[in-house]
Amino acid sequence: MDRQELARLAHTHHPIAAPLADQSVAALLRRALRSGDERLLELGCGQGAWLLRALAAHPELTADGVDPDPAALTDARIIAEHLGVIRRLGLHHRPPAEFSAPHPYDLVLCLGTGEAFGGLLPTLTAARRHLAPGGTLLLGEGYWQRPPDQAALAGLGGAAADFDFDDLPTLLDRITADGWTPIHAHTSTRHELDDYEWSRTGALAEWALDHPAHPDAAQVQRLATEHRTSWLHGYRDAVGFVTLLLRQAN
């Protein structure tokens, strides 16, 4: 089972691929969508959960989603057809960093997609390239809640403490130094962080238990156990997540 398929499986019960509760997602979208007829773009949309919620709630919206996983885009298309919003949704199979559009967007979403662009500042540059004047960026980023120890770093696969994350004040300093102004933010709660991790590891473990004869069952069960151990014994108390609404001066 490849990485993309495992990611889809892990988010079976938590389609928003970030530690945010449904009410937090709804509140962020309400705050971001000021007129209800915006043009949206999500870079790294996966199965399109953010875009589909926005389109279902606002019949005048149009949206584009970009992702390198064709199966995730197929899932997004099926759900969009079921919701009756497919005519307002464009889906693009390509790496987010390679996407170009003939028009700008009122709202760009980049949620935990820094790896696709090579870090925070390249992500901000990519978003800026797609934003219309006066547009808004919805950015989701992890950060260190406390200085990481070796267990936290090991739990994240040996991440370098000075590269992958900043503490929250430093993260905001870097963003504002790049010319962005925060107009709203949501800091994920302990409940949201825990719910997300339990959902991910639980979905994998449940699938393995339900498909014991599948050739990938042992691999999926092992990954569920490794993820749970890395989280509980490693980064649980070290990593936070913030979702920011950002604008630039015209």
Total separate domains: 1
Q: So what's the overall shape? A: globular
Question: Beta-strand level of the residues, as a percent range?
Answer: 15-25%
Low-confidence residue ranges:
none
Helix content: 40-55%
The sequence of SSEs as H and E is: HHEHEHEEHHEHHEHHE
Q: What's the total helix number?
A: 10
Biggest beta sheet attributes? 7 strands, mixed
Describe the structure.
With 250 residues, the protein is α/β, with parallel strands linked by helices. The protein has a single domain, classed as Rossmann fold (3-Layer(aba) Sandwich). 45% of the residues lie in helices and 21% in strands. The chain is built from 10 helices and 7 strands. A 7-stranded mixed beta sheet has the order 3-2-1-4-5-7-6, with helices on both faces. Helix 4 links the parallel strand 2 and strand 3. Helix 9 packs antiparallel against helix 10. The longest helix is centred in the C-terminal third of the chain and has 21 residues. The chain starts with a helix and ends with a strand.
